[in-house]
C-alpha cells in the first residue's frame, strides 16, 4: 500500500513538472512570436528618422513596454472600436491628421481619466485650458468629459499649434510640453526638429508612445492581440434630448426618460452633479441609450 502511494506521488510530480515546462515553453514561444523590427514609420506623414541611434532605441522602448502591458493594451484596443468612430470624423472635419487619435489614446487610455494635476477627460484638459478652448467647466457641467466637445476643443488647439510650428510632430509634443515650452527649446537649442531636441523625459517619450500605440493598434494580430468582433466594445445606439433649461433633479429626470441615473451618468459623464444649470443662450445634448440595458 505504501509503495503504491509513493508511485502515485511520483507520477503526480512528473505530470506537474511536465505541465509547468509546457506552460513555460508556450509563454516563451508566444513572446518570441511578438518580437519586431520596424524599418519605417511616420507620424502624420512625417518620417521618423530611425537611422538615428537614440530615435530607434526610444521607439523600441515604447514598443516593448506597450506590447507587454497586456491588460492595458487589450482594453485600449477594445475601447477604440467604440470611440474611434466618434473621434475620427471630427479630426477629419477639422483638417487634423488621423494619427492624432493615438494622442488621445496615450493621454487617457480612452477613458475619462483624472490626472494628479487635475487634467480630465479623454484629452486631459486642465480647467483653464478647457475654458480657453470653449469647454464649460462649472459646478454642474464639465465638458472635458464630453468626448465629442473635448475632441473639437483639441482640434482647435492642434490648428493653433500647427499655425505656429508648421509641423505635426511638434504639435503633438506641444500638447504635452505646451507651445511656449517647445518654442523656448527651439530658441535655446537652435534646432527645429523634435527628434533633434533634448527634452524632459515625459516629452522625450511622448511622440514615441503615440507611435508605439499606432503601430500596435494598426496591426494588433502581429503583436499577439487577437480578438473576435464580439470581444470588442461596440458603439451604443442612443437618442438625443436637447436641454435648454435647468433640471433640478437628474435622478428623477432619468426615470422619466425610461432609464436610470446610472445610465444617464454613463452616457453623459459631463453631468457632474445631481442637477443641471443651463446658462442663458446655452443648450445641452443629453444622450439616452436605446439598447443594451434592458433585462431579458
From TrEMBL:
The keyword Transmembrane applies. Residues 93-192 form the Transglycosylase SLT domain. The chain crosses the membrane at residues 7-24. Pfam families: SLT. SUPFAM superfamilies: Lysozyme-like (SSF53955). Keywords: Membrane, Transmembrane, Transmembrane helix. Belongs to the transglycosylase Slt family. This is Transglycosylase SLT domain-containing protein.
Amino acid at each position: 500500500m505504501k509503495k503504491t502511494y509513493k508511485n502515485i506521488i511520483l507520477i503526480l510530480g512528473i505530470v506537474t513538472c511536465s505541465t509547468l515546462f509546457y506552460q513555460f515553453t508556450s509563454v516563451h514561444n508566444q513572446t518570441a512570436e511578438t518580437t519586431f523590427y520596424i524599418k519605417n514609420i511616420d507620424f502624420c506623414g512625417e518620417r521618423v528618422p530611425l537611422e538615428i541611434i537614440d530615435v530607434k532605441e526610444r521607439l523600441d522602448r515604447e514598443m516593448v513596454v506597450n506590447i507587454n502591458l497586456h491588460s492595458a493594451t487589450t482594453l485600449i484596443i477594445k475601447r477604440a472600436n467604440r470611440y474611434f468612430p466618434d473621434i475620427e470624423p471630427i479630426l477629419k472635419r477639422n483638417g487634423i491628421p488621423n494619427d492624432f487619435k493615438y494622442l488621445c489614446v496615450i493621454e487617457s487610455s480612452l477613458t475619462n481619466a483624472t490626472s494628479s494635476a487635475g487634467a480630465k477627460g479623454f484629452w486631459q484638459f486642465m480647467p483653464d485650458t478647457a475654458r480657453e478652448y470653449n469647454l464649460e467647466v462649472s459646478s454642474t457641467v464639465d465638458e472635458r468629459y464630453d468626448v465629442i466637445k473635448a475632441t473639437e476643443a483639441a482640434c482647435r488647439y492642434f490648428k493653433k499649434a500647427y499655425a505656429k510650428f508648421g509641423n505635426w510632430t511638434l504639435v503633438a509634443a506641444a500638447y504635452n510640453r505646451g507651445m511656449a515650452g517647445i518654442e523656448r527649446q527651439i530658441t535655446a537649442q537652435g534646432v527645429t526638429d523634435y527628434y533633434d531636441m533634448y527634452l524632459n523625459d515625459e516629452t522625450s517619450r511622448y511622440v514615441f508612445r503615440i507611435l508605439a500605440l499606432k503601430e500596435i493598434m494598426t496591426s494588433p494580430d502581429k503583436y499577439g492581440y487577437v480578438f473576435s468582433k464580439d470581444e470588442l466594445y461596440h458603439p451604443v445606439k442612443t437618442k438625443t434630448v436637447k436641454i435648454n433649461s435647468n433640471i433640478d433633479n437628474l435622478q428623477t429626470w432619468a426615470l422619466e426618460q425610461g432609464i436610470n441615473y446610472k445610465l444617464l451618468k454613463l452616457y453623459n459623464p459631463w453631468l457632474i452633479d445631481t442637477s443641471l444649470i443651463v446658462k442663458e443662450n446655452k443648450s445641452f445634448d443629453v444622450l439616452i441609450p436605446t439598447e443594451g440595458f434592458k433585462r431579458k
